[in-house]
């Protein structure tokens, strides 16, 4: 574990909020997208299942990066302040992860069968997941990010973002940035792009809006979900 950074002005953690906006939107819409798939329509179930696999994998990787790179530093540096929310965050993570596991267990079968029973079960799981996820993201923004802003260095914060990018296939990078762009703060999205490796910094922003529009039309039937 690295030592605590020297006292400075709080770092900017708004990029995390930008990620959360994307997650709230897509998980809020997930159950209705599933329910709109007609029984036996395997072409449509594959399109939707690929989208659901993408967002659930992104959420899992997001939580993994926090668990490995953020929580240990906060526990070491501000133990008294983090203690009251450790149990809450861990409980929320466990509840979300349990539902994600059930979703991931069900998703491959429904993807290939488009069976009504699996569709309805999958939609119900997303219905159950969203309120807890939204509550968790709210708690992070209200209680965790202020602690992080003054307890980790800018370099350490950027390590968190780089860890998330490192596990992405290159083909998904334009779509991810497009997900951020759609409802995210333009200033923050520009900052995210500036901190990215050169390939992402110069090429991906040019493709991001197009990638999001194409994906949203395919999944949601509109470019403005």
UniProtKB/TrEMBL annotation:
- UniProt superkingdom: Bacteria
From the record, give the transmembrane residue ranges: none
**Record InterPro entries:** Hemerythrin-like
One GO cellular component term of this record is: plasma membrane
* Pfam families in UniProt: Hemerythrin (PF01814)
Protein name per Swiss-Prot or TrEMBL: Hemerythrin domain-containing protein
Could you read off the lineage of the organism from its UniProt record?
Bacteria, Bacillati, Actinomycetota, Actinomycetes, Propionibacteriales
Residue ranges occupied by any Hemerythrin-like domain in the UniProt entry: 20-148
């Amino acid at each position: 574990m690295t030592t605590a950074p020297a006292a400075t002005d709080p770092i900017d953690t708004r990029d995390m909020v930008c990620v959360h906006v994307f997650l709230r939107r897509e998980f809020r819409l997930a159950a209705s997208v599933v329910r709109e798939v007609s029984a036996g329509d395997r072409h449509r179930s594959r399109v939707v299942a690929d989208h659901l696999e993408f967002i659930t994998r992104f959420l899992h990787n997001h939580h993994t990066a926090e668990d490995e790179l953020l929580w240990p530093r906060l526990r070491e540096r501000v133990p008294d302040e983090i203690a009251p929310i450790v149990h809450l965050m861990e409980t929320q993570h466990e509840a979300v992860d349990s539902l994600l596991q059930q979703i991931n267990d069900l998703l491959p079968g429904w993807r290939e069968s488009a069976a009504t029973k699996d569709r309805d079960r999958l939609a119900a799981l997303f219905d159950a997941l969203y309120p807890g996820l939204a509550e968790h993201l709210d708690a992070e923004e209200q209680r965790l990010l202020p602690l992080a802003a003054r307890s980790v260095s800018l370099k350490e914060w950027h390590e968190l973002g780089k860890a998330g990018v490192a596990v992405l296939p290159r083909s998904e990078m334009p779509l991810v940035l497009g997900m951020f762009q759609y409802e995210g703060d333009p200033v923050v999205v520009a900052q995210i792009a500036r901190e990215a490796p050169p390939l992402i910094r110069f090429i991906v922003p040019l493709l991001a809006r197009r990638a999001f529009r194409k994906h949203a039309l395919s999944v949601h039937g509109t470019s403005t979900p």
